[in-house]
Amino acid sequence: MHQYCLLLLCCMLASCTTQNFNRTKLNDTHFMKSILVAPWGEKQAEIIPTHISSGLAFEVTPTTKLAPILFELGEDNKTYVVDASFKYLTVFDPNGVFLERIELPTSMSSKTVKDFKVLHSNTCVFLTSDEQSNYQLAYWNFQEQKQNSIALGTYRDVHILPSSNSKHVYCWTEKEDYSGILWQFSSTDWQATPTQFDHLPFGASRLFEKEDTITGIKFFEKHNLRGLISAHLKTNAVHEKVCAKELYGPLLYPIGMDNKRNLYTYSLPKEDHIYGSIYCISPEGAIVKQQTLDKLTAQFPKDSNTILTPYQSWKVLDNGTVALAAMTPQELHIFTLNI
Question: What is the model's pTM?
Answer without folding.
Answer: 0.88
